[in-house]
Amino acid sequence: MDLSQSAELFEANRRFIPGGVVSLNRRVEPEIAFVRGKGSRVWDADGNEYIDYHAAFAPYLLGHADPEVDGAVRRALDDGWTLMGSGTTPWEGRAAELMAGCVPSLEKVQFTLSGSEATYHALRLSRAYTGRDQIVVMQGGYNGWHDEVACNVMNPIEQVGPRVSRDEYPFLPMSAGMPSGVADRVHVLNFNDLDAVEWAFKSFPVACLMSEPILQNVGIVKPKPGYLEGIRELCDRYGVVWVMDEVKTGFRHAVGGYQSLAGVSPDLSIFGKAIANGYPLGAIGGRAEIMDLFIHPDLSKRVMIAGTYNGHPVPIAAAIATMEKLTREGEYLYPRLEAMGKRMEDGLKETCAVFGVTATVARQGSAFCLYFMDHEPTDWHDIAEHHDMARDLRYRRALIERGIYQFPLPTKQGSISAAHTDDDIDRTLEATREVFRSGV
Ligand SMILES: Cc1ncc(COP(=O)(O)O)c(C=O)c1O
């Protein structure tokens, strides 16, 4: 596989960009410079074509460069939807109305440009609402890059320590440069462990519990039956704000978010990624009583939300088109995604069985992960202790050599889009057979 142009671009870009990448998460091997995307495909600088399951960390639910979404963006530009930066606009109102129409727990909505900004605002709102400082997050969960939540995603077991219940894990920051004292305000618990949640709520002044409903930054780790209902009940009992981070699950699994499938109602929800099919948008929404702290008449109680580019018309136009398409076509689009996901799951399981590979496939709809372990994981400890990370990495790199792009980092979710076809899935399964045949 020729990656010489990629190598040249990396070398050139490293002159002015540290590492040649603009998000640390994109620093992986093989180093590839991508130049084009369309539908289920991406192309690199050397002309290699890939069936893409990375989907830029999952926003592309409709596929790269969806004609309807991109058409709406072009129309918005032609119609003079420029950034006004004063007052309101019809289009942000339309986007908020669509969101509230899709997700029943959203009485009020605000827009940011990224998921991280939205989770940041959720912390402030929760603290202002409860008058408490401390927060609960999950081991193996990811809620953005800012202090307090940028911690404990994929740490090796030696750092995390043995599994605990009714206790917390050490705060393991993902970045240097956080101020001292951050760890004192953050409690990192095991996903799927309600006893730990109750212990933390009883023991500390907790403002909010922030968590993905499915851990989708370490593959697919689903909530056990009753877990999300249990969180609702405990948050109610202890006056804690439940912030459901739907940045990865929202719109990917249902227009009502994963919360609509689970039948639960968080206090605040965070959206991003699939909401605008690849354009930069984040959203925070939820109970009016909490959201209205953004306009509290008493300045000492008002929570600040600001941003020159908040509600920028380009991502807003993309979000409107995406949500309109998903609400209009969801009835058959989601079942089709489910069918392709099932085809992938069944095919991978069968292939593993044929080649005697110990593995399991965890999947929710169009999002899947092949784990080299003999059971579906229930939390990060389970993965860290049982999943063959080295084999996972070799497998992903071998697939890339065969024109299948799954992010070359162990446990990263595969994302099927509406632009994929059964033929894409079958070609992926054929590549998987080749990889196992080659002894990887
Ligand atoms: C669950 C979850 N929350 C928050 C974020 C942060 O979103 P962004 O990268 O748009 O800031 C991510 C990003 O991967 C995510 O997966």
Explain this structure.
With 440 residues, this protein is α/β, with parallel strands linked by helices. It has two domains: 4-65 and 330-437, Aspartate Aminotransferase, domain 1 (Alpha-Beta Complex); 67-324, Aspartate Aminotransferase, domain 2 (3-Layer(aba) Sandwich). 38% of the residues lie in helices and 14% in strands. The protein has helices at residues 4-14, 67-78, 90-102, 115-130, 157-160, 194-203, 227-238, 257-262, 288-291, 313-354, 380-386, 389-401, 422-437, and strands at residues 34-38, 41-44, 49-52, 108-112, 134-138, 186-189, 206-211, 241-245, 268-271, 282-286, 360-364, 367-371, 404-405, 414-415. It has a seven-stranded mixed beta sheet, sandwiched between helices. A hairpin with a 4-residue loop joins strand 2 (41-44) and strand 3. Helix 2 runs antiparallel to helix 10, helix 3 runs parallel beside helix 10 and helix 6 runs parallel beside helix 7. It is globular and about 65 Å long. The protein binds pyridoxal-5'-phosphate (PLP). Residues 57, 114-116, 119, 142-144, 212, 217, 245, 247-248, 272, 282 line the site of pyridoxal-5'-phosphate.
Largest sheet: 7 strands, mixed
Report, as a whole number of angstroms, the end-to-end distance: 17 Å
- Would you identify the CATH H-level superfamily of the largest domain? Type I PLP-dependent aspartate aminotransferase-like (Major domain)
Mean of residue pLDDT values: 97
Q: Helical element count?
A: 13
In order across it, which strands form the biggest sheet?
4-10-9-8-7-5-6
